[in-house]
Amino acid sequence: MPGKTLENFDFDAVPMISKAQVAALCAGDGWLRHGANLILMGPPGGGKSHLSSAIGLGLLEKGWRVLLARTSDLVQRLQVARRELALEAAISRLDRFDLVILDDFAYVTKDQAETSVLFELISARYEQRSLLITANQPFGEWGKVFPDPAMTLAAVDRLVHHSTIFELNVESYRRRTALQRKQEGPGRPASFATPRNAGRTRRDKPAAE
Ligand code: ADP
Ligand code: MG
User: Fold this and answer.
1) 51 C-alpha to center of ligand 2: Å?
2) Residue 70 backbone dihedrals phi, psi, to 5 degrees
3) Best probe residue, ligand 1, of 50, 57, 107, 169 (max atoms within 8 Å of C-beta)
4) What values do phi and psi take at 7, rounded to 5?
5) CB contact at 8 A, 118 and 155
């Protein structure tokens, strides 16, 4: 995503993640060489997509091959391939990417889940090629992404076996910044807008103005 870079990611908003940690991930060597995974979890607005895009861009700059996809779009494409009996080839073609970013993993719909293409992808990449997954729901609620509980368990097992998990349990950044703007106001203190101050004389103005 354009504009979603590390430069404009505010690490103060996510105290559980350090800039140094993310910089290390952007080097790539420590995890992409082994096909390890990165999982970003947390409620909407916490910066998961921003951070994954920033990490993807960082890796691209280092020469790694990265594909960023919305999970449901990629599932759609793999389902088409499956109907054409070309699923294996489609998944093999993704091998050329050192990292596939699956944004909004848990947004896959029930009818998409029925064909298990996502499980095929996860199995094919296991210990070979990395995945970066973002999800609003914890693992316990991934049941709708896969056709049955056994497959959900097997998929989660493979994903987390070699993985770093970041839990961005923070308040929505959008909401937080909107509230801050409201508190600080776009220039004048909010009290100036109230009728109470309408009749103020110049002398009453605070020195700061
Ligand atoms: P999520 O994918 O977790 O739902 P997003 O990454 O889409 O959240 O973040 C929502 C919006 O807030 C985006 O515009 C994003 O750029 C911004 N944002 C979120 N967290 C941060 C942050 N720590 N620093 C700067 N911008 C952020
Ligand atoms: Mg997102």
Assistant:
1) 9
2) -75, 135
3) 50
4) -60, -40
5) yes
Q: Which residues of 28-43 are buried (b: 16+ CB within 10 A; e: fewer)?
A: beebbeebbbbbbbbe
* Torsion angle (degrees, nearest 10) of CA 44, 48, 49, 52: -170
Q: Which domains does the chain carry?
A: 18-169 (3.40.50.300)
Atom 27 of ligand 1, residue of closest alpha carbon: 47
The answer to whether the pTM exceeds 0.90 is no
Question: Which residue ranges of the chain lie beneath pLDDT 70?
Answer: 185-209
Number of other residues whose CB lies within 10 A of the CB of residue 21:
13
DSSP 8-state secondary structure symbol assigned to residue 10: -
pLDDT tens digit sequence for 28-61: 999 999 999 999 999 999 999 999 999 999 999 9
pLDDT tens, residue by residue, 60-69: 999 999 999 9
